[in-house]
Amino acid sequence: MLLISILVAFTAFFHSAVAQRVWAHVIVGNNGAYTKDQWKSDIQLAQKAGIDGFVLNIGTPWAGTIENQVSLAFQASNEVANEFKLFFSFDYEGGSAGPWSAGDVRNILGWYIENYSYAKHPYTAFQNTGKAIVSTFEGSANVGDWTGIKSTYSSRGIYFIPEYTSQNPAWHQARLNIIDGVFSWNMWPEGANDMNTNPASDPDVAWKGVNGQYMMGVSPWFFTDLPQYNKRRLWRGDDLWHQRWEHVYDIKPQFVQIVTWNDFGESHYVGPIFNAGIPNQPNANAHWYVDNMPHDGWRALLPHYIATYKNNGVEPAVTTEKLSYWYRLYSKNAGNSNGVVCNAPWQTTYQPSVCIQDEVFVTALIKTLPATIRVQIGNNAAQDYQATKTGLNHFSKAFNGQGAVSVQIIRNGAAVLTGTGAQISAGPPSSDTRANYNAWVGCAPATQAGAGCT
Ligand SMILES: *[C@@H]1O[C@H](CO)[C@@H](O)[C@H](O)[C@H]1NC(C)=O
């Protein structure tokens, strides 16, 4: 008996030492005007959602905004003093001063990796042990820099898990003397499809197969219309936020990275809208598709998704029933597609309407059965779904008219939880007929505005 207890204690210890973790990608440049208190507020919202830390995406140059914001982020995280961690993703494509130099990377790591709030792996709470986690956004041409950078910090050790999705898994396999794991940016479906989860051709299986140290990307959406950067495209979001988490349970990656917390220009933010972070140059202005399109409701079920991931895919008992729901505000055929295409330039492109679906997407977290989930658009016919299990139940309802959206959990003939959502209308206003392919996201029970329902 004693031996068994000791074994159980040991197993628990080692399990926690290599704990799976969930990070969220923060574009530091978009927080250029943040105060320390705003960093604290974001850290607290992220923690409330069960997120373990932020991946700080930084582009060149370091001096100025990035340097200041990184310092504020670390100060805020230290002051919140709650085991929230930060690590860098050196963005080799996003900076105005070109790709990172090895010298700058070495200096920045020297300043921050010993910080208590710098993420380590493997990590034991309240001990600053483990190697410093470091990632990139692209930069595979500079992979050779990392042998020297890593050797500079060999006493701490660097756990290097770059995002080099432009190179294939075999390329990564040939560089396991430099890289410690893989992060892939392939997290949106191609064309009129959901993500490929066929084990024989599933990209997540291939990426995890490089060396088993996989950081899996999870993103809810992708739509961008920024002519200045020649970025006018979308990938199907639709059921993705729910389906991708379910796939996390199959893949069982070491880490999950949510993409993103605050990339407003690509419409995949799950953090609060920060007005000054929305692109607003004359020929790259995202206000028309981000303003009044909150995504906080995508955080509502994160504590449950994350707990399930960390519990080997077994859902924990539900204590509070919740709803999360999202949709575009008019038909995919309304408005002017404005040169936006479905898919990226390296894929076959289609009209947006070919790839996306006119539906209200709903995920309900159910405590007890039976439960009916009812979705109604305006005064049009409602549609009922019977929950099939306690825990997560995901549905979608095809658009059948216009009006405000209502989503309810009904039990014994009475609504026990009601969420309301923005109006579905005929199309964009006549003053600006560009089609907005961003999602409006809601949740219930509602808390203070903008804070999500977690
Ligand atoms: C972490 O970095 C911040 C910002 O530079 C600094 O204020 C803080 O003292 C550092 N903390 C530790 C424990 O190194």
Automatic annotation (TrEMBL):
It holds the Pfam family Glyco_hydro_71. The keyword Glycosyltransferase does not apply. Transmembrane segments: none annotated. Keywords: Hydrolase, Signal. The keyword Lipoprotein does not apply. GO terms for molecular function: glucan endo-1,3-alpha-glucosidase activity. Residues 1-19 form the signal peptide. InterPro entries: Glyco_hydro_71. This is Glycoside hydrolase. It comes from Delitschia confertaspora ATCC 74209.
